[in-house]
Amino acid sequence: MRIFREESRAGRRFLERLIHRGERIPLRVERSVRKILSEVRRRGDEALVDFTRRFDCPDFTADRLRVSEEEIRNAYREVSPELLSALRLAIENVRAFHERQREESWFFTREGVFLGQMVRPVASAGLYVPGGAGGQTPLVSTVVMTAVPARVAGVERIVMVSPPDREGRLHPALLVAAAECGVTEIYRVGSAWAIGALAYGTETIAPVSVIAGPGNIYVTVAKKLLYGEVGVDLVAGPSEVLIVADESAPPEHLAWDLLAQAEHDPLATAVLLTPSWRLARRVREALAGALPRLPRREVAEASLRKRGGLVVTRSLESAIDLANRVAPEHLELAVADPFALLPRIRNAGAVFLGHHTPEALGDYVAGPNHVLPTLGAARFTSALSVSVFLKKTGLLSYEAAALRREGPAVLTLAETEGLSAHAEAVRVRLRNSP
After folding, report:
1. Domain contains 154
2. What are phi and psi of 163, to 5 degrees?
3. 212 and 284 housed in the same domain
4. Of 197, 215, 232, at which residue does a domain stop?
5. Buried-exposed string 316-338: b where 16+ CB fall within 10 A, e elsewhere
6. Does residue 302 form part of some domain?
């Protein structure tokens, strides 16, 4: 992994690429996704089966789309007590965190005017859970992080989709996680055609109001293209971590935290910012020692080589300034006094404070959501939350006296904008008002 000095020419180039790391969607991918969505809209289940046979399970049939209650019951026999216990701890912690995001309807009055905001859950939510190495690495944490906030919001119909393995199965751990989280329907279907089914509906899958959950570039493009037809949570890119560290940080901790992101995807980003050249060298040595022990070594190596970097900054303050410009998905403050730096953090999807808070905690059991903005989107948006599954409706009611008092201002504003019908809608009421 390369070491850069912030002020060097190579360091400046690396940091500029990091700050302006937006992903350009290849035209061929967008064209492919548009064709897939068109097929799903036109042919429904038939298209889902054809795509699933082509890419996932060669002998797939339409009657296998929906997972049965019996399959879910059987799945419980295939998971260990330890996994079930870990799932329940994660669900409990994630629910406790998201319960604090609940929003209530509110109302107030002013001199004959009733105003308010009515908060209601969406009718249905579709959750996308990636396949995870052909079904061999079930992403149970994604089930928890998407289903729990939907359930807390009060969504009645929660639908999960995930691509089947070559035998047409979903991993039993996914089924158990979904059942524990209150998912009401589970379908064996993935990629862009699953997103199309959730948006348009098919003979088997009824359409939903909101789609949430991470996925590959085809899933991401499908969500982007379908926004408006259906609500979506985030349009996100590959995972990323930025670590700001000082000499108090153990190099082994930092190395494994960088690898925890790098093992996700060759396109993942893992970067360390530190004012200490000595620490940067020791982290690089720790990475060299840890990589041979990593089962996903090739993936991690590709990520670190293409997108990783150890940057020696002019100061800790400079590292914080750079972190705000990068606006990372995950930001670790691996410093002696992280809470002293926290007030200076403006842009990050989630912040991990101190030497005993690895990003992996946030992925699984801590409580905050791990579906986070990437590619600098933390400058203007937030993690998946309960609010994604809520609608807010403004309420207003005027008494006659209030209309007489405030109506003339409407006349002035409407006529300024050249909207005479707006003005007349108020004027006719003022003429007829007692």
Report:
1. yes
2. -70, 140
3. no
4. 232
5. beebbbbbbbbbbbbbbbbbeeb
6. yes
pLDDT for res 131: 87
What domain count does the chain have?
A: 3
Residues 76, 224 share a domain: yes
Neighbour count for residue 373 (Cβ, 10 Å): 25
Catalytic residue list contains 329: yes
- 3-state SS string over 232-277? ECCCCCCCEEEEEECCCCCHHHHHHHHHHHHCCCCCCEEEEEECCH
Other Cβ atoms within 10 Å of 216 Cβ, number: 15
Residue 132 lies in a domain: yes
Question: Are residues 128 and 40 located together in one domain of the fold?
Answer: yes
> Residue 346: what pLDDT?
98
CA–CA separation, 206 and 410 (whole Å): 43
Whether residue 289 sits in one domain with residue 263: yes
- 196 and 305 in a common domain: no
**What CA–CA distance (Å, rounded) separates 83 from 102?**
29
Which of 98, 253, 264, 330 is flagged as catalytic?
Answer: 330
Q: Check if the beta carbon of residue 146 is closer than 8 Å to that of residue 384.
A: yes
- Asked if 417 and 356 sit in the same domain, the reply is no
Measured CA to CA in angstroms, residue 21 lies from 18, 307, 347, 428 at distances of 5, 10, 15, 56
Distances (CA, A) of 3 to 11, 15, 152, 290: 8, 12, 45, 17
DSSP state of 156: S
Query: How many residues would you count in the chain?
Result: 434
Which of 251, 252, 259 lies closest to 294, judged by CA? 259
Find the catalytic residue in 39, 185, 301, 329.
329
Count Cα neighbours of 389 within 13 Å in the Cβ-side half-sphere: 31
**pLDDT tens digits for 60-115?**
999 999 999 999 999 999 999 999 999 999 999 999 999 999 999 999 999 999 99
> For residues 102, 107, 108 and 109, what is the CA-based torsion angle, rounded to 10 degrees?
170
Dihedral pair phi/psi, residue 237, rounded to 5°:
-110, -160
Identify residue 99 by its one-letter amino acid code. E
How far is it, in rounded angstroms, from Cα 177 to Cα 87? 7
Q: Which of 200, 232, 264 marks a domain boundary?
A: 232
The CATH number covering residue 315 comes to 3.40.50.1980
**Are 248 and 186 in a shared domain?**
no
Beta strand 390-398 with 113-121: parallel, antiparallel or unpaired?
antiparallel
Domain that holds residue 41: 27-232
Q: Are residues 58 and 144 in the same domain?
A: yes
> Does residue 330 have an active-site annotation?
yes
pTM above 0.85, yes or no: yes
